[in-house]
Each structure stands twice: as structure tokens, then as C-alpha cells.
Design goal:
Family: Belongs to the DnaJ family.
Organism: Amycolatopsis marina
CATH superfamily of one domain: Urease metallochaperone UreE, N-terminal domain
CATH topology of one domain: HSP40/DNAj peptide-binding domain
Cofactor: Zn(2+)
Radius of gyration: 34 Å
CATH architecture of one domain: Sandwich
GO biological process, one term: DNA replication
Structural class: alpha+beta
Largest sheet: 4 strands, mixed
Strand order of the largest sheet: 10-11-15-14
Shape: elongated
GO cellular component, one term: cytoplasm
Amino acid sequence: MSAREWIGKDFYRELGVSSDATADEIKKAYRKLARENHPDANPGNTEAETKFKAVSEAYGVLSDPAKRKEYDEARQMFGSGNPGGFGFPGAGGPGGSSFDFGDIFGAGQPGGTQAGGLGGLGDMLGNLFGRRGAPGATASRGQRGADVETDVRIDFTEAVRGATLPLRLSSPGECATCGGNGARPGTSPRTCPTCGGAGLVNRSQGAFAFSEPCRDCRGRGAIIDNPCPECGGDGVSTRTRTLTVRIPAGVDDNQRIRLAGQGEPGRGGAPAGDLYVRVHVAPHPVFGRSGNDLTITVPVSYPELVLGGTITVPTLDSKVTLKVPAGTGNGRVLRARGKGIVKRDGTTGDLLVTLQVAIPAKLDDRAKEALERYVEAAARHDPRPEITEMLRDRS
């Protein structure tokens, strides 16, 4: 895609956000629109597929801080961003002289000398559209593929131990029919005779020399005489693929895993984007988690805390026996070392066992009589001495 085509698009409008939207707002808007217009949810709906590609392209620019900065700077320089009406003198307004928007791209004189007040625009826009180096030089004009994000849900045990999962995706990818070159099978793109494959042409206007995207090949450097019937010459089509994703041991809920080069394919030979897999971990009915430590709450009886003893508690793999010291308070945490989460770097957490007194909802006659005898025997022990003293002072 040429420079003037990209700047002519309003990526903020595609995502339905303002130009000062935060990265989280942009991501939220993209994920909502991507779900609504996903080809799997709209089979046979070409309008939804077109919208899905548009929001993916917009997110690919606005989610990258460097690309977004350059895109915003270009929009600010050229006004509204509509082709042919960028606020320059003569851009179609009454009384203005003829002005070709393509003149501002490149803005360099032969030999590398910058000309006039437009000297820096060519370099800035060249970076935005993937063209670096001296004007007219053969360079990469491709566009890096957009990053893609998807979600997976795993259970608690898989998050602790790690897992390998198949992941099925339907997203823009390299066209399988033409292999991504955009040409009908059996044919190949040919080098543009106008620009010699550079994608740029130089011309002079008065005392200035300018370079602009080649109009014959639209800045690609190649001409496709017989476009691929599958992708229409774009080299990208929506396809379904299955990947194997390795979930590392100890992954946290809502953590993102990056798979480099597994996003949307790049255009014009540029690298593919990345795939981000967001992991959602289902809670466990017994265990909880605190960092690398596993947590569990174990009910105990009052005599077990007063007299002490041993209790057996489960771990994710087996069980462990812990000693309860005599006189242990309710809510105390016992630690079973090395029984927590083992992470990839070799660090191991512990199992934290919280003791919680279980209060019987109902006692039989024998237990009730025994408890009353205990109350009589322990009458001299006041569990609330500070409060009792305050009440005595106020009586």
C-alpha cells in the first residue's frame, strides 16, 4: 500500500475511538470489533470480513507506539487525512494554485541535499511506510503484519504444571493459492518498468526535486498482470490454521504469551506480526495461589489447636503431614516448603496451610455436657482480659 493511501485512512474511525484514546481503549475497541466481525462468527458475510481486515489493519498501526506516533504526526501535518485535502495551499481550495500531494513525499534533492522547508517530511513518512535510506534507493517498502491476540482457557492444574494445547485460529494469513505474491498460480509479478522496482520515482518542479510513490505500481515496485483469484492480488486471505501452543509452568491468570511471527503476514516481503495468547485460568475448588505459593484452608477442631497434634493435607501431587503446635491460634498459617509451584527458572514455592476452627452447628447431649464441664473448669481463664478491665472501670 502506498504512502498516500495509508495516510488517507482514518484508523481511529475504523476502531470507533478518539485520537487521544489510550492503548487499553484501543485494544478494547479492537477486540470487540474483531469478535463481532470475525469470519467464524459471520460465515459468508463479505462485509464483515472486509471490516475484520480493516480493524486488524488499524490495530496493527495504533497498537504500535512508534507507528502510531508517526501516523499521528503525519495526520497533524496534513489536516483531516482525506486524500487531496490536507490543508496545504492549492490543495483544491478556492484560489489555490495546483499542488500535487505526491510532491511532499521524499523532498530531497539529488545527492541527498534537503530542499526548502519540506526537507524532513520525506524521511519521516519514509519511516512510517517502511521506506528508509536515500530517496530513490531500492529499499524495503513492505508493511509489517499486524499483531493478533486470542484467548485460551485452562484449568488450575494445567497453569501450575504447564500444558501443550492446540489452538485453532481464523485470521488474515498468507494466501495459500499464490503463496503471498499476489499473482495467479503459474504467473509471477514483474518488475515495474517505470521505477525499476524501487517503488519511487523522482521528478523536478521548479528549483526542487521530489520523489513520490510510483503511480504505475502504487509504490510496490512490481506489477501484477494476473491477480490471484483468491486474494485479488493482495497476497493475504482469511484462513483457518491450527497451532500448538506451549503454556509454561506457573503461568498467571490473564498473562499474555507471545508467539513471534505467528500474527498476520507482512506485505511486500515485510516480516509477519506476532500472536499474543492471553491465558485465563479457571479457579480450583480447593487450592488458591499467591505468587509461586499454593494456598489451602484446612478446617480443624478446637482441641487440635489447644492440645496440638498432626494433620494431613493434600498437595497437587500427593499429601503432606504437618505438626500443629499446642496452643496454636485460629488462622495461623503453616508452611510446607517446596510443595508449591515449580517455575521454568527452577524456583519453587511453598504450600501455605491456613488453620480454621470448625464450629459444630449442633451438639448431641453428651458433647454438650462435656463442653459445659469444660466451661466450668476453665472459668478462671478470661479470654478477654483487656476488655474486662475496661468494663470494670466504667461500671
